[in-house]
Amino acid sequence: MRQPLLLASLLLLGACASPLPAADPNMAWIDLKGEGIDLLMAERLDRERVNDGRYFQVTPGAHELEMRYRFEVAGGGGTSMMSEPQQLTCDVRIRYDDFKAGQRYRVEARAVVMRAQAVLYDAERNVLAQGKNLRCGSF
Predict the structure, then answer these.
(1) 120 by DSSP, 3-state: which?
(2) Number of domains into which the chain is organized
(3) What is the pLDDT averaged over residues 104-127?
(4) For residue 51, which of 13, 19, 84, 117 sits 20 to 30 Å off, Cα-Cα?
(5) Measured between alpha carbons, how far is residue 134 from residues 10, 27, 67, 118 in Å?
(6) What's the pLDDT tens digit per position in 68-114?
(7) Main-chain dihedrals φ then ψ at residue 15, nearest 5 degrees
(8) Is residue 114 part of a domain?
(9) Is position 12 within any domain?
(10) CB atoms within 10 A of CB 99
(11) 114: domain range?
């Protein structure tokens, strides 16, 4: 169990170490941010897998973003708070109809009662869309 986790962690560290590409001014750029040490990664754009899970870069217009949010639940979410923490993962989808070229957006996620809450913001921190949990579990 520990070896696959270690391998996944090393792969993620390698991806984080490589520089992000330059933003294309003809596209919209969407940054992803989890809370604290939690991990928010891009998974799919318009139902197609993305190559780099650290961001989305999209054409102007409507898009569907799918992300994976991994966070820790203290006490494993059970009745005993003395048990080991548990890692939970939620798949989240956000749909937004009006991405604009050259604009920066941000998706922020946090854990709320063993579920993910994801919000899409524009550059002025206006809320544009709320995420929908597709599934959550210890997968």
Answers:
(1) strand
(2) 1
(3) 95
(4) 117
(5) 27, 27, 10, 12
(6) 999 998 765 555 556 788 899 999 999 999 999 999 999 999 999 88
(7) -65, -40
(8) yes
(9) no
(10) 22
(11) 24-137
